[in-house]
């Protein structure tokens, strides 16, 4: 029964065979075995180029190679009032395989006297520690909580691991035999652990500002390292690494066990940045690095706005004559433009705040349609004032004044007043 | 480490920065009637001192890496003027590698120049007399120059030394060999010198200063507006 039947159209022999042929093909293509159609559709629908999920895995039962044993066990039913004991087959507890415990090494009293005495630990305390370790499977947070005398987690760990290590080594027939044991191979380093946790908590409690600064500094370090790698064409045995950050030390600074605090990442301030660490460099390259560093915390849109402003000011995005003085001025100009854009945003927010207070509609967001009109109007006058860069001393200034199309349009170019960022930016600098 | 006697020469001097202003690029002449399909232009790619001074006091050798369709695309130029002339029809990127003297810098430096044959204005007439020129200004900065390098260049016009820190004693200048005996490496009278572009930092500095002034004025204005708006908002704040 299909459309043709309903319409009463004759079925041509060709179409019948086609249907017959295509249907089984389409069927196997469309409906996968093992899971229902809806579930399959969730994974991206019909016929992925490469199946992202192995369909056969979806309805698999637990691996049958597990040891499942059955035991003929007695039981009593709680529903019966007599104590009739019946028997039945019971499967072993399937979760028993998860009941692992740690092999805590227990020392004898003689061993304690011989190897394990320590000025900071009494035997009683050490015994208590080991009891707790065994009981709580080396969950030191719990052990520290339950420990009778106040001890830090690091102290407890230190005592446990050094005692275990000493016992292992003492009991081993030869030192070589235990050299491979993890307790022997990697001794617990208290100071390093304390330092690591301190650094971790510092990173966790960083303010947003701090975070941004760190990202900046790290990006700078990475760039210096990369540019140094690039500049290093051949082996340089006598090349002194002037700055403290080389590719190796940069990695060490962020590696485990070391502090991640910014004070330890010794990178020269962005102003001096790559210039002081590379011995020979091209000035345009250095300027590029410094520009990137200065705008590392800015988003892509902000960077585009900076470039647009530079164009409006008739300044080359990349200086045509990059001398030392020119590069310095260029960098300063970019920084000042960033400041300018930030202040504009600040002003917009203040304005929006003001509007919401006046309206009495505190719930509105700055960009909402209802108020954006008025806010935009207000902004336009301010923005016009600030972005009218058409007045430049010299002939070119006069020409550009004449070309400017009108107050309303000028505001659309660089900055985005409250509602304007929703409109596509069609204006170009040349339109001014 | 180098040999003991090299150690003296290679002693690094901190706080002094030597910068070498250069210009690199190409000039291309259309061959007009003599142009064929594969040789429509005759062009020269070069690296010169920004004021056309001789760069060989700093640069030992320049290698121009041409498009692979050229025979022996790696062209080595051992003496100033560091240039290479060829003929062809296509525009492509040329990798220019500068090798410096041992006491200047042991690593080479790379510049990239896109060969320009055709004028900006595509519709305009092409001339066989006036070449299409594309040049880029760059400065190579040597921080911590070696003593011998500094001694060699301290009075050389191709090199810029900044104001030296107070009390700095320059190493004794190396006596310059007789100028006339050496082949001229400067490009002051180079056949192409009439087409060289002029790079003046004064214009750019002026533009930048004017721009900064404008931006600073607007910043001041915004700050005033922000504080004013803040005060206005105070009146309307909900209780």
TrEMBL record, chain A:
At the top level, the lineage of the source is Eukaryota
Question: Basic and acidic residues: which segments have biased composition?
Answer: 18-35
Q: Which keywords does this Swiss-Prot/TrEMBL entry list? A: Chromatin regulator, Nucleus, Transcription, Transcription regulation
**UniProt entry tagged with the keyword Transcription:** yes
**Record's GO cellular component terms:** NuA4 histone acetyltransferase complex; Swr1 complex
Q: Which GO terms describe its molecular function?
A: transcription corepressor activity
Localization, per the record, is: Nucleus
- What name does this protein carry? SWR1-complex protein 4
UniProtKB/TrEMBL annotation, chain B:
Q: Please list the coiled coil stretches.
A: none
Q: Which Gene3D superfamilies match?
A: YEATS domain
Q: Which superkingdom?
A: Eukaryota
Location comes to: Nucleus
Q: Which PANTHER family match?
A: PROTEIN AF-9 HOMOLOG
Q: Does the keyword Ribosomal protein apply?
A: no
Q: Which UniProt keywords apply?
A: Nucleus, Transcription, Transcription regulation
Query: What residues does the YEATS domain cover?
Result: 12-156
- Name by which UniProt lists this protein: Transcription initiation factor TFIID subunit 14b
Naturally occurring in which organism (per UniProt): Hibiscus syriacus
For this protein's source organism, the top of the classification is:
Eukaryota, Viridiplantae, Streptophyta, Embryophyta, Tracheophyta
Query: Do the record's keywords include Hydrolase?
Result: no
**In Gene Ontology terms, what is a biological process of this protein?**
regulation of DNA-templated transcription
List, alphabetically, the GO terms of the cellular component aspect.
Answer: nucleus
Which molecular function terms from Gene Ontology are attached?
translation initiation factor activity
């Amino acid at each position: 029964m299909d459309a043709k039947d309903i319409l009463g159209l004759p079925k041509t022999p060709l179409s019948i065979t086609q249907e017959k042929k295509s249907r089984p093909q389409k069927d196997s293509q469309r409906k996968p075995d093992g899971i229902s159609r809806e579930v399959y559709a969730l994974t991206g629908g019909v016929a992925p180029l490469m199946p992202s999920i192995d369909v056969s895995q979806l309805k698999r039962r637990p691996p049958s190679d597990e040891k499942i044993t059955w035991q003929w066990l007695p039981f009593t039913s709680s529903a019966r009032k007599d104590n009739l004991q019946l028997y039945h087959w019971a499967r072993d507890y399937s979760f028993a395989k998860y009941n692992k415990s740690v092999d805590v090494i227990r020392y004898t009293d003689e061993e304690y006297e011989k190897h394990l005495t320590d000025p900071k630990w009494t035997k009683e305390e050490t015994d208590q520690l080991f009891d707790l370790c065994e009981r709580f499977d080396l969950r030191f947070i719990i052990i520290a909580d339950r420990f009778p005398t106040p001890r830090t987690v690091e102290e407890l760990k230190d005592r446990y691991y050094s005692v275990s290590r000493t016992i292992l080594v003492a009991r081993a027939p030869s030192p070589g035999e235990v050299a491979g044991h993890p307790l022997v191979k990697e001794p617990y380093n208290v100071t390093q652990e304390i330092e690591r946790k301190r650094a971790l908590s510092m990173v966790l409690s960083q303010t947003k500002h701090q975070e941004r600064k760190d990202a900046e500094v790290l990006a700078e370090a990475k760039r210096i390292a990369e540019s140094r790698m690039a500049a290093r064409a051949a082996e340089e045995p006598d090349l002194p690494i002037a700055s403290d950050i080389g590719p190796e030390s940069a990695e060490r600074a962020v590696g485990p066990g070391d502090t991640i605090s910014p004070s330890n990442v010794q990178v020269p301030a962005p102003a001096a940045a790559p210039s002081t660490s590379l011995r020979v460099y091209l000035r345009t390259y250095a300027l590029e690095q410094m520009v990137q560093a200065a705008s590392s915390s800015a988003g892509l849109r902000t960077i585009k706005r900076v470039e647009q402003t530079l164009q409006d000011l008739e300044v080359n995005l990349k200086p045509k004559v990059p001398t030392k003085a020119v590069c310095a001025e260029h960098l300063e100009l970019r920084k000042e433009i960033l400041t300018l854009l930030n202040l504009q945003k600040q002003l917009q927010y203040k304005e929006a705040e003001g509007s919401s207070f006046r309206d009495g509609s505190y719930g509105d967001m700055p960009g909402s349609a209802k108020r954006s009109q008025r806010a935009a109007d207000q902004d336009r006058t301010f923005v016009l004032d600030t972005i009218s860069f058409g007045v430049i001393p010299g002939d070119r200034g006069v020409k550009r004044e004449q070309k400017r199309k009108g107050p309303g349009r000028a505001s659309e170019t660089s900055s985005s007043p409250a509602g304007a960022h929703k409109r596509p930016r069609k204006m170009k600098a040349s339109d001014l | 480490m180098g040999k003991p006697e090299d150690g003296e020469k290679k002693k690094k001097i901190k706080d002094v920065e030597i910068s070498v202003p250069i210009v690199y690029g190409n000039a291309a002449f259309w061959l007009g009637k003599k142009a064929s399909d594969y040789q429509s232009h005759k062009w020269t790619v070069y690296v010169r001192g920004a004021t056309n001074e001789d760069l060989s006091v700093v640069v030992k050798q320049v290698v121009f890496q041409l498009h692979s369709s050229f025979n022996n695309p790696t062209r080595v130029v051992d003496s100033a003027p560091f240039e290479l002339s060829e003929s062809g029809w296509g525009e492509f990127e040329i990798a220019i590698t500068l090798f410096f003297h041992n006491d200047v810098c042991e690593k080479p430096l790379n510049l990239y120049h896109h060969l320009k044959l055709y004028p900006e204005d595509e519709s305009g007439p092409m001339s066989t007399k006036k070449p299409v020129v594309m040049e880029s200004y760059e400065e190579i900065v040597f921080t911590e120059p070696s003593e011998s390098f500094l001694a060699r260049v301290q009075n050389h016009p191709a090199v810029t030394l900044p104001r030296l820190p107070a009390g700095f004693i320059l190493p004794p200048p190396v006596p310059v060999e007789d100028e006339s005996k050496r082949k001229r490496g400067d490009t002051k009278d180079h056949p192409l010198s009439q087409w060289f572009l002029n790079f003046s930092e004064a214009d750019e500095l002026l533009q930048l200063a004017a721009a900064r002034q404008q931006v600073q004025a607007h910043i001041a204005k915004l700050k005033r507006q922000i504080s004013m708006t803040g005060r206005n908002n105070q009146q309307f704040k909900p209780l």
